[in-house]
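Take the subject:
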Amino acid sequence: MSYKVSRDYPRLKQLLDEGYRVVCWVTYDWSRESGHWVTDIAEAKRVGKWEYMHYMVSVRGHVFSDFYPDYPGLEHDEDWMFSMWEKDRLQFIDIDPSKNTLDLEIVS
């Protein structure tokens, strides 16, 4: 199985807007000061449909980024969201929605 890893954040937002939940990797400084970098596999998704809709990247209850474009007092533009993803060194699997099957190789 092959896939493409990407940092094309406008593309990720497009996939999330289309309703896809996307596998991604986030690399961050474990203590924010030690320089001990850790990479987690996470999920990017769009939560909600109208008022207070937001984009979330999270794993095991840990939220790496949570972007509310229209929440009063928390309004940020896309550039802000993309800069947060860049800070977390987010990479994602750029899926091809035109292929509705996933080829898996079973290894025994």
